[in-house]
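User: Teach me something about this protein's shape.
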Amino acid sequence: MRRTIFRLLGMFAARIAARAERQPWESRRGRQTIDYNNNLLLVRAPIDDVAQALADRTERWERDVVGREIVLGQFGAFVFRLRGHSWTVVVPEVRPEWQGWALLKGITEQTRALSGLLKTRAIYYWVGDTSGTVGYELYENGELLEKFSGTEGGSPDDTFSSRLRDPKRRDLRKIWDFSYQFLVDQDAFEPGITFEYFIDYSGYQRHTHQPGDRVRIVNEGFSRWMTDGSRSQPSIPPIERVDYLALRPIAGQ
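Assistant: First, the predicted structure itself:
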């Protein structure tokens, strides 16, 4: 009986996932997934404007890198935007020896600075599947408008502050729904893409990368396991362009 129930639940979940995949990427809002760990920036501006705003931190800017080989710098980030969306995404790299996100130190100031320089809204967003945490900081014209940090099951470290609204406490406890609706309200979409997503590891000796490595950049899409044990056809995000930035570390890092 228990096996039957689990099998039915699995089929139900697969159908929900299939329905979500049928929605065009261009019209998706909110986020693609919470089943991973990532930190990223969303900036409501064109790719060129965002990359140029990071010029004081950039050693090398390579445009339109999908399908090409590039040499990784000491620190790096991919900058891209999905077709049909107004927010540009910045995803930095993580390597195990850094024990965390290379750009985490000073990221709040970086988000604020980008927002002020471009006279627009910018979001610093993070999700931790391992730790069961999610959060964001929303800036506009260099000013902090809203900040949220939530832990599944609750934590004394959870925080919320806003100059825009005063939600009910019970809504804040639903951290996944609350953060999802925030992105929807901003007409933003977190696509579930990490730095590693763009690197072609086929034929690679290892599934990690180092500064100076020559790597091929790809956009191969996402697939999932079907109930019959096969893999679905990949759903490929329609990315307008992917640029690579080799960045200088933040002072004091």
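Now, about its shape. The first strand starts at residue 30 and ends at 31. Confidence is low (pLDDT under 50) at residues 1-18, 99-103. If you'd like, I can walk through any region in more detail.
User: That's plenty for now, thanks!
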